[in-house]
Amino acid sequence: YSNVPLGLRGLGITFIVTGLMAIGFMAFAGIQL
Questions:
Q1: What is the reported pLDDT for 2?
Q2: C-alpha–C-alpha distance, residues 22 and 26, integer Å
Q3: Cα-Cα-Cα-Cα dihedral of 1, 5, 7, 18, to 10°?
Q4: Residue 17: its pLDDT value, please?
């Protein structure tokens, strides 16, 4: 992981954050419904 290019590392973090936000939003929507 220490040799991953900066661009790929940022892209991975972006995907992880987006995934967590999507899961959190779906859970919140489920609670509201």
A1: 60
A2: 6
A3: -10
A4: 87
Number of helical H runs and strand E runs in the chain: 1, 0
Q: How far apart are CA 20 and CA 25, in angstroms?
A: 8
**pTM across the whole model:** 0.52
Q: What are the distances in angstroms from CA 16 to CA 3, 11, 21, 25, 27?
A: 19, 9, 9, 14, 16
Q: How far is CA 5 from CA 1, 8, 11, 15, in A?
A: 9, 5, 10, 16
Report d(CA 26, CA 2) in Å as an integer: 33
How far, in Å, CA of 12 to CA of 20, rounded? 12
